[in-house]
Amino acid sequence: MAVFTPLSDAQVAAFLESFNVGTLTTLQGVTGGTENSTFFVTTDRRELVLTLFEQGEHEELPFFVDLLDYLDEHRLPVPGTIHDREGIALHSLAEKPALLFPRLPGRHPDAPNLNQCQALGDTLGRMHVISQHFPGQRPNPRDLHWIRAMHHKVLTYLSPDDQNLMKDEVDAFESAFVEHPVLPQGALHGDLFRDNTLFEGDKLGGIIDFYNGCTGDLLFDLAIVINDWATQDDGHLNRERHDAILQAYQARRPLNADERAVWPVMLRMTALRYWLSRLLVVYVDPPAHDLTPHDPERFRTILKSRLAHGALPLPEAPS
Q1: What keyword terms does UniProt attach to this protein (predicted)?
Q2: Domain identity same for 46 and 176
Q3: Is residue 145 domain-shared with residue 201, that is, in the same domain?
């Protein structure tokens, strides 16, 4: 998180008057690394998070509001948006779209333990069961169609071996998904890395930053989680963390035969998705603000490890 549009105490105090949240006492800009301006807001009644949307498709913000509110109504640990006294969540502040959220408890887990992995797997499985009934639609903006269209833009910046690696993988993904074209669908988080979760000890306090949220293959979400949460520095999978997540997930939503068949390919595809998106930021479309891009090499390493060693055996769903 970062601040690109500074706000004064007076601006925020006036903004809060439309909401039934109390009177501003302190305002703190939050530093870190995303594309929006984020503030911790303390009133005489509660702790809040205020986000100004600096980039992206603003017409898609109602989808995120609806998704967060839907998941919150189903008692998932997400920051359901705060609506004003007229029932409106999406506002404008400093000429930017603005949303107000409750501040959820906890900290990001740098090195998640097995209890935290189990908690994440359980919650993601529960979320995916619920999200299959969410009525909103936003096609996955980083699926295979996007990979196919965008990977040509980075090829000239890669070594001949990496060019061939990327092109061969895109071909392999297309072949695999022709054989398994219909996977279970629902609403996804789309970017569920460790730094998008908050834990108090072993308790999952919140899943945050749904701005890659979309609808699509539920397996896509799960593969992103495994590639981040259960991967060691050398790119290899950690069996204990892998199994803790997947056993807890499948206790809520068992994977079907098609998902199990395409699982190794989905792990590779989501690794390539992040390798490609980070290459695009470095070489083709740098961020509008002065942020340090994420290192693409991390996901090249993961992709090569998945190719060399394959996927670990999937745990069976509990009976």
Answers
A1: Amino-acid biosynthesis, ATP-binding, Kinase, Nucleotide-binding, Threonine biosynthesis, Transferase
A2: no
A3: yes
Residues 215 and 131 in one domain: yes
Provide the domain limits for residue 216. 114-309
Q: How many domains does the chain have?
A: 2
Buried b / exposed e over 284-308, threshold 16 CB at 10 Å, is: eeeeeeeeeeeebebbbbbbbbbee
Q: Are residues 47 and 138 in the same domain?
A: no
In a domain, 106, yes or no: no
Give the Cα separation of 268 and 205 in Å (integer).
30
Residues 127 and 272 in one domain: yes
Instruction: Give the global pTM.
Output: 0.95
The answer as to whether 4 is a domain residue is no
